[in-house]
C-alpha cells in the first residue's frame, strides 16, 4: 500500500453495482482495507467468491465501519439514499461519508436534514458504461476520469469569517476537513482526478453533458427504430455512437434525469431552441444547415481541446489543458483556492 492508502484508512462501500463495485475492486487492488454491502444476496455471494469482503447485511457492515472509523461511500440509486443515510446515522455516527450519486444538491439536502453536513463530502465520478450490476464491474474504470468533490459546506463556513478557511467564525470544522482529504486521496488512488465543484454548479453542468445526452439518445433511438427494418439494417457508427447510452437500464436513466429535472429542463429548452432554428433554416429556400454546423463544429473543437482519449469517461481532461493546484486542507485561504480551481475547471491534489 502506498502513502495515500495508509492515510485513507478503511473504506466501506454501500452498494456494489457498476460504480461501487468497480471502486471496491480498484481499492482492494491497491491494498486498501475495503469492504461493502449489497442488497442482493446473489451479488454478495459472487463478490465473496471472487475474494472480496461483501455482505448483504447493511447493519453488520455499518457496525464494522463504525468500529474501524471507515470512510463510507454511498453508491446506491438516489431513491435509496435517504434510507441508507438513516442507517448510517444510527449505526455509524462517527464515520465520514461521501457518495457517487449523479446529482449533488438533492443528496446534500438529505444530508442536511439528518444533521450530517460536518462529516459529508459529496462526490461523483464522471465514468461509467451502459451496463450495471456486479457483473459489469471492472478494474481501471476511473483511470483518468474527473471525479467531482463538492465543497459547499467548506465554502459556507469560510464565508462566515473574515477570510476563506480561517479567522473567527470562518473556520471549517476539522471533521469536514478530514473527510475532504480522505475523499481526495481515495480519488487519486483509483487514478481519477478530483474536481472541486459546488453542488448547484455540478447539477447544472451534468444536466448539459450527461443527462441531456441520455434524453437525446433515447429520442434518437426511437426515431431511428421507426424507420423499420431498413433503418435497422443501415444504421452504422454515427447512429451507434449517438445512441450508446440508450442501452442503459431505463430505471437508472429515470433516476438520473428525474432527480435533476429542474436544470435538465432548462438545458433541454436550449437544445430544443437550437433544433427549432435548424428546422427553420432547413425548411427555407434554399435549405441551410450552415449556422448550426459551424456553431457545433466550433463547440466540438473547444470541448475536444480539453478532452482526453478515455473511452467511457464523460468529461476527462487532457494533461495539457487541465490546471492542477495542490492544496493543504485546513490551511489559511484553502477554500479560496478551491473556488479558483472550480472557476478554471481544474483539478485539486491534497497534501
TrEMBL record:
Record flagged with keyword Iron-sulfur: no
Keyword Translocase annotated: no
Domain Prephenate/arogenate dehydrogenase: 9-314
Entries under InterPro entries matching the protein: 6-PGluconate_DH-like_C_sf, NAD(P)-bd_dom_sf, PDH_C, PDH_N, Preph/Arog_dehydrog, Prephen_DH
Assigned keywords, A-Z: Oxidoreductase
SUPFAM superfamilies to which the protein is assigned, alphabetical: 6-phosphogluconate dehydrogenase C-terminal domain-like (SSF48179), NAD(P)-binding Rossmann-fold domains (SSF51735)
GO terms for biological process, alphabetical: tyrosine biosynthetic process
Source domain of life: Bacteria
PROSITE patterns: PDH_ADH
Molecular function terms from GO: NAD+ binding; prephenate dehydrogenase (NAD+) activity; prephenate dehydrogenase (NADP+) activity
Family: Belongs to the prephenate/arogenate dehydrogenase family.
Protein name (database record): Prephenate dehydrogenase
Amino acid at each position: 500500500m502506498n502513502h495515500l492508502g495508509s492515510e485513507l484508512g478503511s473504506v466501506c462501500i454501500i452498494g456494489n453495482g457498476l460504480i461501487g463495485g468497480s471502486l471496491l475492486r480498484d481499492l482492494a487492488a491497491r491494498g486498501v482495507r475495503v469492504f461493502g454491502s449489497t442488497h442482493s444476496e446473489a451479488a454478495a455471494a459472487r463478490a465473496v467468491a471472487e475474494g472480496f469482503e461483501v455482505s448483504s447485511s447493511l447493519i453488520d457492515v455499518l457496525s464494522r465501519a463504525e468500529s474501524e472509523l471507515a470512510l463510507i461511500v454511498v453508491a446506491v440509486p438516489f431513491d435509496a439514499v435517504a434510507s441508507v443515510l438513516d442507517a448510517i446515522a444510527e449505526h455509524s455516527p462517527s464515520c465520514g461519508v461521501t457518495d457517487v450519486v449523479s446529482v449533488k444538491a438533492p443528496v446534500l439536502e438529505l444530508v442536511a436534514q439528518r444533521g450530517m453536513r460536518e462529516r459529508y463530502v459529496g462526490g461523483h465520478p464522471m465514468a461509467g458504461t451502459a451496463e450495471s450490476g456486479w457483473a459489469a464491474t471492472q478494474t481501471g474504470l476511473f483511470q483518468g476520469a474527473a471525479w467531482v468533490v463538492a465543497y459547499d459546506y467548506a465554502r459556507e463556513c469560510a464565508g462566515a469569517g473574515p477570510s476563506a478557511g480561517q479567522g473567527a467564525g470562518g473556520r471549517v470544522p476539522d471533521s469536514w476537513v478530514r473527510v475532504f482529504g480522505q475523499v481526495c486521496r481515495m480519488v487519486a488512488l483509483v487514478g481519477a482526478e478530483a474536481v472541486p465543484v459546488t453542488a448547484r454548479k455540478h447539477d447544472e453542468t451534468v444536466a448539459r453533458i450527461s443527462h441531456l445526452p441520455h434524453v437525446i439518445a433515447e429520442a434518437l433511438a426511437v426515431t431511428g427504430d421507426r424507420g423499420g427494418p431498413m433503418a435497422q439494417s443501415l444504421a452504422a457508427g454515427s447512429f451507434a455512437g449517438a445512441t450508446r447510452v440508450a442501452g442503459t437500464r431505463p430505471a437508472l436513466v429515470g433516476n438520473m434525469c428525474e432527480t435533476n429535472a429542474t436544470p435538465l429542463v432548462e438545458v433541454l429548452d436550449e437544445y430544443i431552441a437550437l433544433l427549432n432554428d435548424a428546422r427553420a433554416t432547413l425548411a427555407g429556400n434554399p435549405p441551410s444547415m450552415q449556422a448550426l454546423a459551424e456553431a457545433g463544429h466550433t463547440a466540438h473543437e473547444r470541448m475536444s481541446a480539453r478532452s482526453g482519449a478515455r473511452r467511457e469517461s464523460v468529461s476527462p481532461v487532457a494533461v495539457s489543458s487541465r490546471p492542477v493546484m495542490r492544496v493543504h486542507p485546513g490551511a489559511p485561504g484553502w477554500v479560496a483556492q478551491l473556488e479558483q480551481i472550480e472557476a478554471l475547471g481544474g483539478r485539486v491534489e491534497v497534501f
